[in-house]
Design brief:
Keywords: ATP-binding, Cell inner membrane, Cell membrane, Membrane, Nucleotide-binding, Translocase, Transport
Shape: elongated
Bound molecules: adenosine-5'-triphosphate
CATH topology of the largest domain: Rossmann fold
Helix content: 10-25%
Protein name: sn-glycerol-3-phosphate ABC transporter ATP-binding protein UgpC
Number of helices: 9
Membrane topology: Peripheral membrane protein
Radius of gyration: 25 Å
Number of strands: 20
Strand content: 25-35%
Oligomer: single chain
Organism: Pararhizobium mangrovi
Order of helices and strands: EEEHEEEHHHEHEHEEHHEEEEEHEEEEE
GO molecular function, one term: ABC-type transporter activity
Distance between the termini: 39 Å
CATH class of the largest domain: Alpha Beta
């Protein structure tokens, strides 16, 4: 069992509170990803779990046992860092073996464990090489190997892929996910990359200013963001937001007379932010038949076009602000062209403009 339980866990540095009372239970074998912008307290939370940072208040339980005052070595948790901290002057075999430095295994058992780990990570033919002769991805795997070889109850990853190029990051993402499927070990993973969070997590914890904003499965956060921050953070490109006024269940944006009808009743009156994902905003021919459909209609001027092959991102300047819509790959509108876009009522999100909470 490697359940990790945080009860009112907090960290203060002088008068700065880096992490406010955090309550969270991470189940045995779960893959939990902490996301949030720089400085939101992700790493500090992870470092408290690892025992690298003192806990200011609250309790941390590992496998049901309070561990606030246990040092890192006694916690049976392995941490993999961003700057993968491998020793350049020794071989891959030795680098992985450092993970067993304090272990009481016999040297034959240690060798077997190192070989097994290397095999699992596809490093078996590289055991005698030094890090300088490895690619970035292979070096990252050595760092993971050093953590894995101890057979820890949980892995903590602190932005392990941020030093790698985009292609390698995508590849390592899959490797870490497969490793988790194979080992079934609890993983807590910190990143500011929402794609990593969406693709790897069983559950995502969204943090901001040292507080948890929302916890849920990736798809739940994508479909039901609790506030503007999560709505814009999860999903790429970010959700478009248009300001408007809500009255009698209808929304009007400031420069248009047509009210926007929703698919549900919201008894709110006042300023709102209307959210719509670029993938839900479809380019139309602007014909009367289309304009008569319920939902959101916007008319704007193309300001930027980003062809991605399978789809094209079209940036539109509107009287109400600016939005991004997606169009099929072969649709390449000209800059300055006038375009109409539409989103169905069920794809619209509404947030209170003041509290930024979902309505
Ligand atoms: P990043 O993505 O940039 O690593 P993060 O979300 O991991 O950011 P933390 O490193 O946990 O953020 O930092 C949270 C807050 O605590 C920040 O405001 C940071 O400046 C502050 N902080 C972190 N470590 C210390 C320290 N040793 N002394 C004082 N303040 C600190």
């Amino acid at each position: 069992m490697a359940e990790i339980q945080l009860e009112g866990l907090a960290k203060r540095f002088g008068n700065v509170t880096a992490v406010h009372d955090m309550d969270l239970t991470i189940a045995d074998g779960e893959f939990v990803v902490f996301v949030g912008p720089s400085g939101c307290g992700k790493s500090t939370t992870l470092r408290m779990m690892a025992g690298l940072e003192d806990i200011s208040s609250g309790t941390l339980h590992l496998a049901g046992e309070p561990v606030n005052h246990k040092d890192p070595k006694q916690r049976n948790i392995a941490m993999v860092f961003q700057n993968y901290a491998i020793y350049p002057h020794v071989t891959v075999r030795k680098n992985i073996g450092f993970g067993l430095y304090t272990s009481k295994l016999s040297s034959a058992e240690k060798t077997a464990r190192i070989n097994e780990t290397a095999e699992m990570l596809g490093l078996e033919d590289l055991l005698d090489r030094r890090p300088a002769a490895l690619s970035g991805g292979q070096r990252q795997r050595v760092a993971i190997g050093r953590a894995m070889v101890r057979n820890p109850a949980a892995f903590l990853f602190d932005e392990p892929l941020s030093n790698l190029d985009a292609q390698l990051r995508a590849q390592m993402r899959i490797e870490i996910k497969k490793l988790h499927q194979r080992l079934g070990t609890t993983i807590v993973y910190v990143t500011h990359d929402q794609v990593e969070a969406m693709t790897m997590a069983d559950r995502i914890v969204v943090m901001r200013d040292g507080k948890v904003l929302q916890i849920g499965r990736p798809i739940d956060l994508y479909e039901h963001p609790a506030d503007v921050f999560t709505a814009r953070f999860i999903g790429s490109p970010s959700m478009n937001m248009i300001e408007g006024n809500m009255r009698d269940g209808l929304i009007r944006h400031d420069n248009a007379d047509l009210p926007i009808e929703l698919d549900r009743k919201i008894g709110h009156a006042g300023r709102v932010l209307l959210g719509v994902r670029p993938h839900d905003l479809h380019v139309t021919d602007g014909s009367p038949r289309v304009s008569g459909e319920r939902g959101l209609h916007l008319h704007g001027t193309v300001s930027t076009v980003e062809p991605l092959g399978a789809e094209t991102l079209v940036h539109l300047d509107l009287a109400e602000g600016s939005v991004i819509a997606t169009a099929p790959g072969r649709t390449l509108p000209a800059i300055g062209e006038k375009l109409s876009v539409h989103a169905a009522p069920e794809s619209l999100y509404v947030f209170d403009a003041e509290s930024e909470k979902a309505l």
